[in-house]
Design brief:
Length: 253
Amino acid sequence: MPSNASYAVVGDSYAAGNGMYRDPYAYDDLKCVRASDSWSSHVASYYSPYRRIVACSGAAIADVDNIQAGLAEDHFSSASPNAAKMMTVSIGGNDVGFAAWLGRCVTSNCNTPENEADFTSTVNLTEQRLAALYSRLADRFPYTDVIAMGYPSPVGDSPGGFCGVAIDQGEANFIWRGVIHLNGAIDRAATQSGAWTGLGVRIENEFRTHGGCDDNPWIHAVSTPKENSFHQNPAGHLRYGMIINDYLIDRTS
């Protein structure tokens, strides 16, 4: 890869590094829960060590527009003028209220036709907003290689519910379908922007047998600290980063 490349990590908790450490005070930024050893470190080791994580736990589409894009600009402006630039963006989960849906599945029966229709409608609207965001960022960063990242499902597609938590198999399937729909929306929005690559479905497929309750989990189940719950564990961070590296290698081969 280019020796003078510059890399910015944009997005929400799945980009910032949630789930990397069990000690909540081990993170580099306690407010945004940023972890320098998270999956983007593996991408940086392949693509460029000149990396900045501007992602922040809890971020939504508006935060990328209003805060993170400016921080990424600052990062790129400090690099060599002719440096290759790459940005990974993981956003949309908070806009569809995915954490709230997970909580609803724990406390009540979320697997109803009404909830399915509600979630589908919310994802469809978010897809339009993502496509608009990606287009704005493509205009703002015209010479930057941008990759739209998707979300791993906290539950695998194997039977058995969710390891003792009050989520039955029907609700686990509801969550799985929701992740499939959201990742599809991310990839379609990336395609619509005309300048982006979407890896939502690829991430979904890689993680599908490594949910929080599978034999070889890449995702935390309900955990302490609670911020780790449903996020990549260290093995998941490694594999998430390798998915991007595999894509970069495939693209140049």
